[in-house]
Amino acid sequence: MKAALLENPLIARVIKNSGYLFSATGITAVISMVQGILAARLLGVEGFGILGTITMFTSVVNKFASFRMGELVIKYVGQYTETEDTARASALFKAAAIAEMGASILAFILIWLLSPLAARYFGKDISLAHWFALYGLIVIANLIAESSTGLLQIFDRFRRMAALSVVQSLVTLAIITYVYIQQGGFAGVLAAYIAGKTIGALGLTIAAIIEATRRWGKGWWNTSLKVLRPQGRELAHFAISTNISASLSLINKDSELLWVSLLRNPLEAGYYKLALALANMAQMPVSPLPQATYPEISREVARKNWGNVRFILKRGSLLAGGYTLAISLGLLVLGRPLIRTLYTPEYLPAFPALLILLAGFLVANTFYWNRIALLAIGHPDFPAKVNMALAVMKVIGMLLLVPRFGFLASAALLAGSYLIGVTVSVIKFRLSLAKKEMV
Description:
The structure is a single chain. The chain has helices at about 1-5, 10-65, 70-80, 85-120, 130-135, 135-140, 145-155, 160-180, 185-215, 230-250, 255-265, 265-280, 290-305, 305-345, 350-365, 370-375, 380-405, 405-439. The chain is an all-alpha fold. It has one domain (about 1-439). It is globular, with a radius of gyration of 21 Å. The two termini are about 35 Å apart. The relative contact order is 0.12.
C-alpha cells in the first residue's frame, strides 16, 4: 500500500509535506495536551471554560474580519508561478498582505470595543473585560500571518512552518509549567498563550518575507498593483467568497464555546472545551493534509490533469478516514480512564460530548479536502452557500436545544453540520469534476 502511494510523485510530495506538518502537529499535540492538563488542573472546570471562551472570542472576531488571504495566495501565486509571471506573483502577495493588515487592525479594534460585552455575556462577569482585550493583542502579531502561511505553502516550505509550530508550543508549555509550579493564576496561563502565539505568528511573517525576497528580489515590495487590474474582479470575487464562507463557518464550527457560554455558563464551556480538545486528537494527522494538498490540487487543476486530482483525493481519504476510525475506537474504550486520570474526575461529564463529536469528525476527516477541492476547481462561492444554509439551521438549533440540553446539544449540532456540509460539498465537487473531464 505504501509503495503504491509513493509511486505517484504528487502523492509522494503531499505525504512528504504532510509529514513535516504531521511531525510538528504530533509534537505540538502532545505539548498542547500537557498544556491543557496543567491549565485544567490549575484553573478548574469553570476557569478552564473562561480561558477557552476568551481565546475563541478573539479567534472568531479575527476570522470574521479576515479574507482568508492564505487561500488567495496559494491559488493565484501558484498560477502565476506556473507561468513564470513573477511580477503578478509578487504583486498578488503584496496586495494580500496589505488587505490582511487592514483586516487585522480592524479585528483588533473590534476586540477592544466588544470586550466589555464579551465579558458580560460570555464570561458572565464584567470584570473579565480586560482579559478579553489583552488577549486581542495576538491579532496584531498575526498582522500578515495568513498571507505568509500561503506563500510558504506554495513554495513547499513546510519544514520551516513545522519548526515554527514546535517552537511556539514549547514556549507556551514552558511558561505554563512555570505558572503551574508556582501555583500561579489565570493571568499567567493567559500570558503563556499570548507569548507562544506571538512568537509563532512573527516567525511565519519573517520566514515569508525572506522567501519572497529570495524568489523575487529585494525590490519585490515595489511591484505595482496595477498588473493585477485585468483580474481584479476575479480576485475580489474569490476573496469575498472565501470571507463569506469563513464568516459563516464561524457559526457552524468555530464558535462552539461562545454559544455554550452565552446560552448556558462557563462551567459547561469547560466540559465542552475538554471534549473538543480530546476530539481534536482525531484531527492531529489530518489537519496538515489540506495545507499540503491544496497547492498540489491547484497545480493539477491548472494543468487539467484530472486523473491526478482524483488520485490525490482518493488516497488522501483512505489515509485520513482510516486513522480517524482507529483513534475514535481508541477513545471510545479509553476516554473515561484518560479523563479521570489526567484531568481529574470532575471533568468526566465531557465524555458523552466527546463521543458525539467523534462521529462528526469521522466524516469531516475522511473528506477533509471537500472545501479546498471546490476552491481549486473554480467554485469558491459554493462553500459559502452551503455554510449559509447550515448557519441558519445551526442558529435555530442552538437557540432551541442548547438552553434545554446544554453542551451535548451543541456537540450534536456540530457533528450534524459536518455530516450535511461535507456530503453536499463532495457531491458538488464530483459533479463539477465530471463536467471538467468531459470538456
